[in-house]
Amino acid sequence: MRVLGIDPGLTRCGIGVVDGAIGRPLAFVAAGVVRTDAGAELPDRLLGIEHGIEEWLDRQRPDAVAVERVFAQHNVSTVMGTAQASAIAITSAARRGLPVALHTPSEVKAAVTGSGRAEKPQVQAMVARLLKLDAAPKPADAADAVALAICHIWRGGAQARVAQAQQEFARKVELARQRRTPSAQGTAGKAGEKP
Length: 195
Prior knowledge:
54% of the residues lie in helices and 16% in strands. By secondary structure, the protein is α/β, with parallel strands linked by helices.
């Protein structure tokens, strides 16, 4: 499975691509950032992010997209910009029919380092180690996006299998219920007939 991770941001939107599957080695494919000018108007910046993400999607052809879930911060304008960039990423993937998963920073840290409270340098060191790289991708936004892709490969695949198993179980329960419940015609009997 090829996963394109996106660490959304208005000025620097990190992108990372990783191939892998549970129980198989991970393979680093590419990483980078989509940049916009902080002095540009918001519509132009969002359009720039969309064009950049579309180029990555065209070039890398991922099977899934993992986006960092926006969480509350003290700076509301930063949260708004991150949320807007996130919406662009989700929309671009959805337009292509790609599955999209949102992962919190704590989920990503836990998946990559084993601790949801790991610091950025720990995450970057583990990204490099897991992908057998000399150093984590630069800048930090790109490394964060690669960590998102790793998280999705390890957690998203398992989550998809759990969801599929739950759907299959619900289908079997419904079939069993239908078999146990006699139809209205079969139980009505003929008029005047005693049960």
